[in-house]
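Memo to structure team: turn this sequence into structure tokens by end of day. - J.P.
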Amino acid sequence: CILSPQFLKDKNINYISVDKPVFIFKEKLNEITLIKDNNIIWQEIATLDKRIQSPIIWPITSIENDKIYTLRIRPVKSSLNEFKEISFKADNNSFQKIDLIEEKLGKNESRWINQINKNLNKNPDLSIALLFSENRPKSEMLDKVQQKFISETICKNN
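Reply from structure team:
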């Protein structure tokens, strides 16, 4: 059950609207892998003591406009070869660069809240990326919204 990003589907291709999405899953994972050009570009594997938990902030350089990426996940309680794969690429119509937006927002909490609220419906991945950003200002309100999002959002299976 993936809560974020909310891939936009067009036929067999999934599109993403931000260059550094946040991965949020309802359940813990045993493995998560990012693949580009048939090469693993990032991977995290759980141990028996430490499962992979959300949120997972985009761990590598920004998504490139013309590349296809594959997200491969293996939830806890799945066998070694039981993966779910989602291939995606940038949505050229609505692609946003998170770093540029964060720079404009600075450390002003009300600007961050306004930007998150403004994009909830038209670009939820941008709102989620900002909400979970490591660069956002410290805010009890935003911390509470993060927790509420993870605990109360209903899964839309991809």
